[in-house]
Amino acid sequence: MTVTRFLERLPLYLVGLAVALWTLLPIYHLLIIALSPPDKAVAGDIIPQAVTLQNFVTILGSRHNLVQNFWTQLWNSTLIAVVTAVLTLVVGIGANFSISRLRLPGGRIVTNIALLTYLIPAAFLALPMYRTMGQYGFLDKPWSMIFAMVTLAAPYAIWVMNQASAKLPYELDEAARIDGATPLQILRFVYLPLMAPTMVAIGIYALLLAWNEYLYAFLMLSTERQLTLAPALGIFLAFDDAPWALMMAAGALYALPPTLVYYLFRRYMVGGLTAGAVKG
Amino acid sequence: MTAVTMDMAAAPPRKRMSEEMFWAIALIVPYVVVFAFFVVYPVGYGFWLGSGAASFKKLFQDPIFVTTLWNTAIFVLVAVNLKMVVALGLSAFFILEFRWIRWLSVVFILAWAMPSIPSILSIRWMFNPEWGMVNNLLFKWFQIEGPGWLTERHYGLMLAILVHIWKSLPFWTLILVAARLAIPRDLYESADVDGATRWQRFRFITWPAMRAPYLTSVLLSSIWTLGDFNSIYLLTGGGPNDSTQVLATLGVRYLRIDQFDVGMAAVICAMPAILPMVFFLMKRLSKVDEA
């Protein structure tokens, strides 16, 4: 590359460098603290002087009282995320098939209510939801999180499925009907195969929503063995002398699975409500 | 098939219902149940508890409340506008067709892809006044005693805004990249033929096409920013002395001191800001849906 060409593109390189630094700095910081010896998490160095996996060994071996339930909490997070994804799909498929394919009278109202619920931030539904979960006797049980997360994810599911199914020609259903298919057979053999990519996107969305949720988990789960990983990480903050190296290592372990899932399914994730809506 | 039809015909006691109608109703039931038990009832009950005059009186007499309103206004106005302007600018960068830029966009999305707790906690530790990396380096390189980033209201709010932008910037940049890619290329080509300047290209081609998606994005982003609990709570915890609370965190603050009704009153106070935006967005989004 010639010098003039390099100089011409220099502003681009500078923007690129700034973007990379801005994005990676907090993540790099997380990793170097996680890799520091527990007593040396004082960060005055950009390049760490000593690197160790000791924090990860401590966590995976549950050898510190703040991480003694790590595996249980990992299991709780996984269970809640997977069940939330499955139930969101069941609720969403049922509602969308009913509204868009079976033409439920008043279906449009349901879609609009779903959109309304989706647009109101979850933080403002947390208090009433917490109180009600107490009345239902779900507090401190996985069901409280599962139902809360399905409640938050289902409106998004219905709205996105509504947009996707609007693109499926209705003639397909009619052809199947003429062949004598029942509604359930149309669901099984026409609707689901064509909607598969949307189902993947919705399932992953609900899975990540539940795994990443902090506020609801922090309100509704309280005993250590019932916690998911997100509020368990928050507990570190309650201690003045929080073992930050351990906390960062636990944070890295917690962040890894959803990040991998996101990148694996990235082509399904772009789109959805906002991209579709904002493009128009 | 026939057997199923006969069952269906026998099932509704009074009126004969078509099989389609039966399934249409049966399949909507799960969502209706979820909605009734976990939205209608909690919201109705919560608002009923929070709407008493006594709760509002307690809330309005709490000096924290006015601070919280200010904080919320600053947080939302600054975070949303800064983020969207930067995203608009960056979207011009990310549509360029260089391989390294495409790879950079994969890295860039990382902040959005990963859960927010670990990254917020990392930033919190980075800005710890005594042991954090930022103040240590400030001292090492420039012999400056760095400020108490998280123990002073203005720095706390500023960092919360930065954390919020760090997390959500990639998302909005990608949305605006999509909007830019929808602009027909030949418009720019003919502008080049006419000798248009960069500013004229932006002013007369890019902006007219981007205005509607930009406005929708600003609205949606405002709603989400108003509801951002994590960026404040995990960074400053609303402190010091509740000076960095926002409406999204205030409810939880009252819940923790066992004043659920005052917390609900705080939630109700956010509604006049949220609901107009929600209804406006619903109109816009439904239009897109029909088109």
Automatic annotation (TrEMBL), chain A:
It comes from the Bacteria. The keyword Membrane applies. It is a multi-pass membrane protein. Gene3D superfamilies: MetI-like. One of its GO terms (cellular component) is plasma membrane. Its main location: membrane. GO terms for biological process: transmembrane transport. Residues 74-265 form the ABC transmembrane type-1 domain. It is found in: Cell membrane. Signal peptide: none annotated. This is Carbohydrate ABC transporter permease. Keywords: Cell membrane, Membrane, Transmembrane, Transmembrane helix, Transport. The chain crosses the membrane at residues 12-35, 74-97, 109-130, 142-161, 189-211, 244-265. Belongs to the binding-protein-dependent transport system permease family.
Automatic annotation (TrEMBL), chain B:
Keywords: Cell membrane, Membrane, Transmembrane, Transmembrane helix, Transport. GO terms for cellular component: plasma membrane. GO terms for biological process: transmembrane transport. SUPFAM superfamilies: MetI-like. It is a multi-pass membrane protein. Pfam families: BPD_transp_1. It is found in: Cell membrane. Residues 69-283 form the ABC transmembrane type-1 domain. InterPro entries: ABC_transporter_permease (IPR051393), MetI-like (IPR000515), MetI-like_sf (IPR035906). The chain crosses the membrane at residues 21-48, 68-96, 103-127, 157-183, 204-226, 262-282. Its main location: membrane. Belongs to the binding-protein-dependent transport system permease family. This is Sugar ABC transporter permease. It comes from Vineibacter terrae. The lineage of its organism: Bacteria, Pseudomonadati, Pseudomonadota, Alphaproteobacteria, Hyphomicrobiales.
